[in-house]
Amino acid sequence: MVSDSLATVDRLRSQTGGASGDGASKPLIRCDSAFYGHPTIGAAIRAGADVSVTVRLTSTIKRAIASIGDDESSWTPIQYTDALYDEGTDTWISRAEVAEIPFTALASQKKAHHVAGRLVVRRIPDLRPPKDEGQGTLFDIWRFHAFFTTTDPDEVGTVAADKTHRQHAVIEQVHADLKNSALAHLPSNSFSANAAWLVCAVMAFNLTRAAGTLTADPKLTKATTGTLRRTIASVPARIASSARRLTLHLPTDWPWETAWNTLFDRTFGPNHPIIV
Q1: For every one of its 276 residues, what pLDDT tens digit does the chain have, with 9 covering 90 and above?
Q2: Are 261 and 235 in contact (CB under 8 A)?
Q3: Which of these, 76, 70, 95, 72, lies nearest to 84 by C-alpha position?
């Protein structure tokens, strides 16, 4: 799947005149820890892409994190734009620190599988209550989250790499949106029917999101397709025909009137007036 996806990206770049050899940025494959292995990382590297893969806190990773030390000069404080909810402590966390060290992934495997890169580590205060409530702590206790990346540190610094790695949740929102619409009707006992339905679902999703973007309404440009269907698709209007001309009667004081008119003008142009 990684090889096929990157081949498609390369083909699209070539068709649009932006081949990777013409100064275009390298694709970045972002994966969870389940894909930290040679099959995924190797496929991405062979296709000329960078990787950003979450790693489990194995003994090897723990030793690498310990080698960073607690020197404050090694850690860079960051502030989350939006606080992250920590289920372990039932709190919102907005403060963290990041650091990195050179790291060779898959070093326990044969040499042909070794991949040089860097280990980016993010640490957050461990706010979980201690087992002995009466015992204080002499120093801060941290919880660590690490990922391996092959991106160029001169182009993507430590903070930027961490921020990019945390943007993976966007695709999860797309999946949730699709599951809340057309994909709710899957599966069928026919593989071909499922494949055809998936293609139609993605086309409908892209067109609906494009319509939301064309409205230029901040509330609709990032809205889910369900919201867009309720606001600008399911229009409570009445169509009247007179003198071979259609008149669309929109509701009075409709909150989405401006957004809908903008979408109509950008789609059909000003030569198709709307009579309200």
Answers
A1: 899 999 998 888 887 765 545 566 789 999 999 999 999 999 999 999 999 999 999 999 999 999 998 887 889 988 776 666 666 667 666 778 999 999 999 999 999 999 999 999 999 877 665 665 555 544 457 889 999 999 999 999 999 999 899 876 567 788 889 999 889 888 888 999 999 999 999 999 999 999 999 999 999 998 999 999 999 998 888 888 888 888 888 888 889 989 998 998 888 876 665 555
A2: no
A3: 95
Comparing CA positions, the residue from 70, 35, 71 lying closest to residue 53 is: 35
Structural domain boundaries in the chain: 2-166, 174-229, 234-268
Beta bridge partners of 84: 93
DSSP state of 148: E
Tell me the sheet residues that pair with 245: 242
Q: What is the DSSP letter of 232?
A: I
Residue 20 has a CB neighbour count (10 Å cut-off) of: 16
List of residues 6+ apart from 237 with CB closer than 8 A: 248, 249, 250, 251
Q: Does residue 117 contact residue 103 with C-beta atoms inside 8 Å?
A: yes
Question: Per the confidence metrics, is the pTM higher than 0.85?
Answer: no
For residue 183 the two structure tokens come to 């994909």
By DSSP bridging, strand 238-242 and strand 91-105 are: unpaired
- Residue 256's Cβ-side half-sphere holds a number of Cα atoms within 13 Å equal to 20
